[in-house]
């Protein structure tokens, strides 16, 4: 196996190098054909969010950077999808795709969350094909990093659609890495919703650690992702869940992230990190009760990039995911993601380019943000300063650490 031809680390991790020649080779999955993943005009997962992200990224010249290759995704084959999905399920998706008037609600196809549309199979398999391509690029050394902001379909299960997700591209990409000889993959999911599909597909596989930070399932779909979900009998400690209370804000979320993710990443020592960056935890997103800012979401992207440099030779595949404030939040958050994956972050206080704002107003009649941040105060109390049993977030974090850390030789109180 040849994995990652260039494993150089970056300097100045918190903001990374501004020298294009120093950036790692990166691929960005994008083509307008991805807009075919479209559940209809009344559905919250609008393809407009992808179009506006690509247009905003283009305004910052991210797609033209010397180290960046833009990849048109191919439709994943049935055999590729069946590495993580049951063949009967793939056949069912094909059937409803060709006959939208005949839903299959037993498999989640034709529900309110996942309404059937003509061409559903091809549109869904194309998103999966994008993340699959990134995995293959890491395996053969064409790229060290990649991002499929149209991916992140983390709710799709082996044999059922769920939560706006038909095929689980994250799982397809991870399985390709494993089949290519990678021994350890770390999956980090910071969507507001629990990454249940990806967790369950690799539930009993010790080669994959899934870490999900999300709003607690007591108040939010899919109702799972609690600290005692720790993996199957052959993979105890491979599933990690931090179920945060509703209305969690930046400081508490970042405290939880830094109290769990870096420690386990260093203990697990993955060869590749795959991350899901759903931005529906934003305070302006109506599909969760979290209170995050674009500033905090961007910081988590930087933190995952730093972890990749520290533990996996820079090898990192990032995806999108949830995100339903399609004008104010998603394009800004994922443009930051594209820039960070390419090695050159957009400055936090950069102005949103005037031509993009004009386009949003003229095309959609919406006012666009003026700057690329929310002017949030990004400060959080590190775990090392102490545990507060009266704090709901601290109790959540401690519950996860008590369940998981001893399984990796870590002390839940001090590491």
Automatic annotation (TrEMBL):
<dbReference type="InterPro" id="IPR037138">
    <property type="entry name" value="His_deacetylse_dom_sf"/>
</dbReference>
<dbReference type="Pfam" id="PF00850">
    <property type="entry name" value="Hist_deacetyl"/>
</dbReference>
<dbReference type="InterPro" id="IPR003085">
    <property type="entry name" value="AcuC"/>
</dbReference>
<dbReference type="InterPro" id="IPR000286">
    <property type="entry name" value="HDACs"/>
</dbReference>
<keyword id="KW-0006">Acetoin catabolism</keyword>
<protein>
    <recommendedName>
        <fullName>Acetoin utilization protein AcuC</fullName>
    </recommendedName>
</protein>
<comment type="similarity">
    <text>Belongs to the histone deacetylase family.</text>
</comment>
<feature type="domain" description="Histone deacetylase">
    <location>
        <begin position="43"/>
        <end position="339"/>
    </location>
</feature>
<dbReference type="InterPro" id="IPR023801">
    <property type="entry name" value="His_deacetylse_dom"/>
</dbReference>
<dbReference type="InterPro" id="IPR023696">
    <property type="entry name" value="Ureohydrolase_dom_sf"/>
</dbReference>
<comment type="pathway">
    <text>Ketone degradation; acetoin degradation.</text>
</comment>
